[in-house]
Amino acid sequence: MSLQTRPLSYSLGLEIMGIDLARVDDQTFTEIHQAFLDSNGLLLFRDQELTRRQHIDFSRRFGELDLHEAVPLDRHPDHPEILIVANEPVVDGMGSNGRYIGQTWHSDLAPSLAPALGSLLRAIEIPPVGGDTMFTNMYAAYETLSDGMKNLIKDLHGVHIRGRKAVSAEWEAENRKLNPPVAQPVVKVHRDTGRKALYIGEPVRSFEHMTEEESLPLIQFLVRHATRPQFVYRHQWRRNDLLFWDNRCTMHNALGDYDQSKRRYMERTTIKGDPCGYYCTVTTA
After folding, report:
1. Strands 182-185 and 278-279, sheet pairing
2. Facing residues of 207 across strands?
3. Which of 226, 236, 249, 275 has its CA 20 to 30 A from that of 90?
4. CA-to-CA distance for 52 and 56, rounded, in angstroms?
């Protein structure tokens, strides 16, 4: 079959229409995989009434799945391949005890030795307004840098620190134990397309062998540059949307732009990527 698609934005993204991900034959899967590469790293599938097993099985066709051992408090108790992305309003309706996942510009599992190839996030319950997620094209971010800047950053490694906003003391204690700082190259070559992409994000604390004070101006410039409006797509979620993004050539940011007394519940599978990076220490002044 030939896929029915429409672009999501000028810079990245395709919606694939008329597909039931619970019933994808080999030919259709091959076309989906090619669309994934051609879309600059973002596919949207609407109206996907999937069981957890169907979500896992489709995801696994792209590669080995992460069991989310780095965040054991956030994974589904019966399906470790599923990461729970949710907030739960408190009883009195004021605020929430949410898992504030992803509210910075980042790529999944960058602070690990096996950064994610892809992530497949399905919206199960969404607030009436807001809860959007933004994505940006990191191919374009790299390709539009000056030659001088490309030369400056070509050998740099960013020190990625796993963290989160508004977390419990229990979560932070577990996080510190399981996730030491990891250095990743600032410029990566995509294995499947051969294109170079910028690999940076707000969780980058510094560049290896540089202090935080020395690193911060360049980190801030690169993140600002990568998230210019012309590179960005903002997704307004609907129930049973499934978004599939390529962490090797995109960054994303889950916006907290919704009433925290309303429930927002999503589930994500994460495809492991190639081993990359190494444990390091943060350089101090």
Report:
1. antiparallel
2. 158
3. 236
4. 6
